[in-house]
Amino acid sequence: MKGKKVFAVSLTTFLAATALFGCGNSGNTQTEQTELNMEEVLSKDPTGEKIVVATNNAANGRDVWLLENAQAAGFNIEIVQLGGGDVTARVISEVNNPTINVVWGPSEDQFTSMIDAGALVKFEPDWAEEVAGASEENGYSWPYEIQPKVLVCNPDVYTEETAPKRWSDLWEKEEFHGKYAVPTSFDGNTNRAVIGGILGRYLDENGDLGVSDEGWDAIQQYFDNGYKTPDGEDDFGNMASGKVPITFTFASGLKDKCESFDIDPLIIYTEEGEPTNTNQIGVVANSNQELVEESMRFANWLGSTDVIGAYAQENGNMVTNSAAEDSMVPIIREVKENYKPADVDWTYINSMMDEWVAKIQLEIY
Amino acid sequence: MKNLSKNYRLRRNIGFVIIAVILIWAIFTFLVYPNLSLLRITLFPDGTFDVAPVIQILSSDRVLTALKNSFILAVSLTITVNILGIFQIFVLDYYEIKGNKWLNIAYHSPLICNGMVLVTAYNFIFGSQGFLTANLMELFPNMDPYWFRGFGAVLIEMTFAGTSNHIMFVRDSLKNIDYQTIEAAENMGVKGRRILTKVVLPVLKPSIFAASILTFIVGVSAFATPQVLGGEEFETINPLVRSFSRTLTTRNYAAVLALLLGIITILVLVITNHIEKKGNYVSISKVKTPLKKTKIQNPVLRWIVTVAAHIIALIQTVPLLFVFIFSFMTAGDLYAGEMNIKNFTLNNYLMVINSTTGLRPVLTSMVYSGLSAVLVVGFMLVIARIITKYNNKLTGTLELFLQIPWFLPVTLIALGLIMTFDRPNILTFGLTLTGTVYIMLIGYIIIRLPYTLRMIKAAYAGIDNSLEEAAKNLGASTVKTYIKVIFPIIWPEVLSVFLLNFIQQLSEYNVSVFLFHPMFQPLGVMLNVATGADSTPESQMMSFVYSVIIMVVSIVIISFVYGRKSATLKKRQ
Questions:
Q1: Which fold has domain B64-326?
Q2: Taking CB atoms and an 8 Å cutoff, what residues of chain B touch A80?
Q3: How far apart (Å, rounded) are the C-alpha atoms in residues B11 and B25?
Q4: What's the pLDDT tens digit per position in A125-142?
């Protein structure tokens, strides 16, 4: 049949063509970055070139705040709202032809994957010194916010004496069984940090995926004895109503959640310390040098003392910028004074997290 | 003889060759190549196949149970949706039932609501802290607040949300029945029920068949409903696939699971394709008499059917009404299961309107959904025609390729596109597609291919070959025959496919999130950002507002398209 021939010939041609050209063309289109004079770049006024800012910080009207302030400062931005994981996946997969210029909000391990994929450019903001020590410096992304995950309890159910003192109390002491909410999804930073905080205490080179049997047993107990908040219920709401009186939250969620459910919860500062990460800002590599420089100016502006201070005041964030600390809201200031970061190896934990989460989903949850 | 004339036509028909080349190019470029490269990267990371994820997956009880549940759900759903769907179309068009207009609107209503939002609404009504549950608990303090959870709840929700294919397509074939055949049967002394089983149902067979396959696929790949209503008791596989496909290091798990699921689905499809080919179709008549409604003679039975019909209508519409009400509530009230009218607020709406994107996503989604729906229907009109006319191994392969989007998680399809076309590619004539406004359109078209092909194929199957031959004998060219004779017959079905594609894509998320152009953010992405893992209860309320917007847009489009559809049908009669 003629049709078959046409089909066969065309198919062979296409396969051959792809084999010849399609695969050989795998070079990165980005040119190697020349060393920029940071001071010179940052001291220039915004050019007003349109930059795309992808962020998980734009909900609840925060996008309006950001846009208005950026415009007043001379920037022309388009805000793209995406979850932290989605931004990361997208920036990585678009590495050869990026559509996003500035990433604001994902955590340091998400930035690490973006850096490893070669998706970001090096830059150093004016405020680098003010945030020094908040996280390990990598030269690409800079922390603007600390995000400890704290246990919170209903104050009518527990007092400081009766509340859990350690994360491990939750599953080791029977009185807390069924009284605490556990993660039900595994893509959010908060849930992953909580898991990392638990497994990170049981690191063992010889154990499965670097964790001892004891560790896997602990996480199993943690999930088995916790409350898996179904869709349609809110863990913070359950805590507020007393139904499931213990849950956890990321620090910057405290202000909004407390207002939504009208409660002043008992915040637990555990003996082993809080799982903590930072949220960061970075500039995406692009062959358009002017766009990159404008993006750096924007990132520099957004993290600067006055701007991030005003943002934190409005939204209840715990800033890294030491000069902006006075702008923090009272509840966050209180947390900042009392919490201590869990002393575990986050670099290793983050490198293993995807596999841990896969194991938990397949075998434990 | 027949073969000879076919060969002759082929040789003459340069158009056919051009179409064939374009088809092969398009299918290879956008369907085969990107997905194969992604699977290669995922499953053969260092050039060799990594068996560890397969072993891990097969030794996980959770996965095996979830797989089993997915198939139990798919089979049960195919049965329940057919029962409900066929009951509904008979209530609408075959029997005389009071309140027909209202029932017609009600039975269409699940069409307009995003699946995730609909199931969320169910949950806020029937869930552990839902409004109905809260009220029932006051009457029966001992009842289990989690009564609406597990397999039963999932099946009920998906059944009532899943009859749209019946309402849109099977119904069309019911309307197409020539009343003279029923009269003839009656004259021969055949009684009511036998007319149903011997005359009416056989005519509906092809469309019921197509609807059943689609329902099966919906069941196997169910995501939102089991995730929300299934609870720990009834987990299905797709939420796991989705979760794995979203992180780099676990993407191979997703691919393995998807392939496993795909193999089983292919088996089902191959079997059904086989049955379908053997099937004999009753054609619609050339000069037909419109269907006359029958009155149910037995008064008790009539009463029962009428009540059941109206209860179904309520079950389908009340959750949508609640979505509307929720959009005015505060997060605190919603989660507390309290409806304080004095707390109703327009804040959620103001938050959407005042946001930096404002109502732009509505326009973006309408344009993308509309364009992709038109294009995919256009392509499939040609391809389904070729497949139905030339039924051989080649077209069989073509059909199988076009069903690829049913076997792969859409996240992987989107990633395949984005990573394949992020540099100038010979297949796209040196163009880079990633980051352009076109790539999301391509993605939208791809994910609607299998569905559209199925439906258009079913539409073609209902055409009487003698009509075509008559036109040819009268001297009409192939193209003219198609435009003047065939196309008008399938036009109502084509409109329905367009409509369903359009509405589905209005809230599309999985492909959009990777492919959208930053200046054009679609509704589905806005809706999901509002309900995502890191969102606050307040921002979740915005999802109800976006849903109301989607419903309004859908209603406008449906009434517009249906206006045209009924005008065409009237003209024809």
A1: MetI-like fold (1.10.3720)
A2: 518, 521
A3: 21
A4: 999 999 988 888 999 999
Where along chain B do its domains lie? Answer: 1-45+348-573, 64-326
- Identify the residue among A65, A91, A93, A182 best suited for mutation to test binding to B, counting B beta carbons within 10 A and taking the highest: A93
Token pair in block for residue B78: 């195919």
Q: Do B174 and B291 form a contact (C-beta atoms < 8 A)?
A: yes
Query: Distance from A52 to chain B by nearest Cα, in Å?
Result: 7
pTM of the predicted model as reported, rounded to 2 decimal places: 0.83
Distance, in Å, from the CA atom of A211 to the CA atom of A201, rounded to the nearest integer, reads 9
Task: Please answer yes or no on whether A90 and B514 come within 8 Å at the CB atom.
Answer: yes
Q: Which CATH number fits domain B1-45+348-573: 1.10.3720.10, 3.40.50.2000, 3.60.60.10, 1.20.1260.10?
A: 1.10.3720.10
C-beta atoms of B513 and A3 within 8 A: no
What is the mean pLDDT of each successive set of 10 residues along chain B, which is 573 residues long? 54 72 88 87 79 84 91 94 95 90 91 82 86 88 89 95 86 79 81 78 81 88 87 87 78 82 79 70 57 84 94 94 92 82 90 85 93 94 87 84 84 86 83 87 94 87 76 79 84 88 88 89 86 71 88 87 70 56
Round to whole Å and give the CA distance between A184 and A230.
8
A38-145+278-329 domain in CATH 3.40.190.10?
yes
Single out the residue of B507, B149, B123 nearest to residue B334, CA to CA.
Answer: B123
The tally of CA atoms less than 13 A away on the side-chain side of residue A182 is 22
Question: One fold for both A38-145+278-329 and A147-276+340-364?
Answer: yes
Strand-pairing partners, residue B370, are none
Domain A147-276+340-364 has CATH 2.40.50.140: no
Which residue ranges make up each domain of chain A? Answer: 38-145+278-329, 147-276+340-364
ipTM entry:
0.77
Q: How far apart are CA A299 and CA A143, in angstroms?
A: 11
